[in-house]
Design brief:
single chain; 509 residues; alpha/beta; Methyltransferase, Cobalt-precorrin-4 Transmethylase, Domain 2; Rossmann fold; 5-stranded parallel beta sheet; 5-stranded mixed beta sheet; 34% helix
């Protein structure tokens, strides 16, 4: 059997989108991925659905793997002819034990490639505004492990050199040994008041930054209850200008925001929240189920070209319809000369991805207002109109179009089924006051959420509720839930913008 090939891929400093282009491309080709504890599991979305995924955290706790066990797995999978990706946090060649893995691969005659990644120290610097080198303060930088090999009696660290080092020192994995690190540096000549900083969860919305002197950093970290993973920066640059800390100044930085859509919708919304500095808490309330195998839809599809207008009221509807068309070997040509209307830019964008440019994108998002705008745009009397939408949508749009003289066929192409979750963690977080926002993008997500979480758990918490639009807000109010924000633009982007505006307003109040 032909031997496989192994890629040691640097996963970057934390955020999934900080992996290199090369790293992401290699993940797409993997038959097997062995994922480090510090490698963001969100990166696994790049892998194929049939890729074998193995999580191999180092054995610092029960359930972890020893380096020998990891080495054996890599060789075993490669000898089975697989393309193997060893996904390692940061950069494989910086405190990543790459040499241990490459040694066994070389002895087994297995080919390999090292794909570099952004090491944690560099990522931390970018996301805190701590410049590791600066022409005024530091022209040199050292990366040092703060946690040497277990059981080692001597030290490979030259503390005499470090104590007199005039540049920047970055300690990896040093939070557990802060006292020892500080004392050794001081004993070897470094002033006690040397600026120092500790950065935990670098590049994530949960990033923490503690600044202090070398002698007091440990105490400050304990007082603020900072936990690993963390890096320690020592030197003049650690006393950086807070204006450079762009990431932690984002309006939503550190805000815990619950998203309650379906799994795919949550993932999309979560990405937007992360880009705004927030921390998404995904809580799927619905599952999108296709109805395109119904005789009603199949009959309508066969006659798409006979309609004057075809209307999509959501991105889910567009995605479901075109997935069905693709499964039947069809594409956008099935629409013939029919004109297409799409509620909102997001739905129009989904259609554009399938080669359909919407003829009308109304700037309103309620059924009645949409119908009125359609009637104002075109004479629909005696025109054949097809609605492709959710099975649980209201009849408001149908009624308005029918009143305007249109011949309306209302066809369900999907429905939203409720998803059950373990609510204990979320309810506990609400009670502890660690949730800042709970968001809702549809009435069905409202029902799915409060079918599991008591309204009192939200109403009695400090969490604010944000809704995508008036229909969703109306359903929340029917349940007795106070709505803090209703998005002006009834899209996910509009919802996020409204939350940011509210937070920005509070910041200046």
């Amino acid at each position: 059997m032909k031997k496989g090939f192994v890629y040691l891929v640097g996963a970057g400093p934390g955020r999934a989108d900080l992996i290199t282009v090369r790293g992401a491309e290699i993940l797409k080709s993997a038959d097997c991925v062995l994922c480090d504890k510090l490698a963001n599991s969100a990166l696994l979305r790049f892998a194929r659905k049939d890729t074998e995924l193995l999580h191999v955290p180092k054995r610092t706790a029960e359930g972890g793997s020893t380096q020998d066990e990891i080495n054996r797995l890599i060789v075993e999978k490669a000898l089975a002819g697989k393309t193997v990706v060893r996904l390692k946090g940061g950069d494989p060649c910086i405190f990543g034990r790459a040499s241990h893995e490459l040694d066994v691969l070389s002895k087994a005659g297995i080919g390999f490639e090292i794909v570099p990644g952004v090491t944690a120290g560099v990522g931390m610097a970018a996301y805190t505004g701590i410049m590791l080198t600066d022409k005024e303060y530091s022209s040199q930088v050292m990366f040092v492990t703060g946690h040497e090999a277990t059981g080692r009696q001597d030290t490979a660290i030259d503390w005499d050199v470090l104590g007199k080092f005039g540049g920047t020192i970055v300690f990896y994995m040093g939070i557990g040994n802060l006292d020892s690190i500080a004392q050794r540096l001081i004993d070897n000549g470094m002033p006690e008041d040397t600026p120092a900083a500790l950065v935990a969860n670098a590049t994530f919305p949960t990033q923490r930054l503690v600044k202090a002197s070398l002698s007091t950093l440990k105490h400050q970290c304990e007082r603020q209850k900072v936990e690993p993973p963390a890096l320690v920066v020592i030197g003049a640059v650690a006393d950086s200008d807070d204006q450079m800390n762009w990431f932690m100044k984002k309006t939503l930085f550190g805000k815990n925001i619950v998203v309650t859509r379906d799994a795919a919708g949550n993932a999309d919304f979560a990405g937007k929240i992360i880009n705004s500095g927030g921390n998404p808490v995904e809580f799927a309330t619905i599952r999108i189920e296709s109805r395109t195998d119904s005789s009603e839809f199949l009959q309508a599809m066969a006659n798409f070209s006979q309609y004057d207008w075809i209307i999509f009221t959501s991105g889910n509807g567009a995605m479901t319809v075109f997935k069905a068309l693709d499964g039947l070997g069809k594409d956008a040509r099935a629409f013939g000369s029919a004109k297409v209307a799409a509620i909102g830019s997001a739905t129009a964008g989904k259609l554009a991805g399938f080669g359909i440019k919407a003829d009308l994108v109304p700037d309103v998002f309620t059924g009645r207002e949409l119908g009125m705008q359609l009637l104002g745009f075109a004479n629909l009397r005696d025109k054949k109109v097809l609605l492709l939408r959710s099975a649980i949508a209201s009849n408001e749009l149908v009624d308005v179009l029918a009143e305007g003289g249109a011949q309306v066929d209302n066809v369900a192409v999907y429905t939203a089924a409720e998803v059950k979750n373990d609510t204990s963690s979320l309810v506990e977080s609400l009670g502890e006051g660690t949730i800042d926002w709970v968001t809702f993008a549809s009435p069905s997500s409202v029902d799915g959420f409060f079918g599991q979480v008591p309204t009192g758990a939200v109403n009695s918490s400090k969490a604010k509720v944000a809704s995508i639009g008036p229909v969703t807000s109306g359903r929340l109010k029917e349940l007795g839930v106070k709505v803090e924000v209703t998005a002006a633009a009834h899209t996910i982007d509009g919802l996020l913008d409204s939350i940011e505006q509210e937070e920005s307003h509070n910041g200046f109040s």
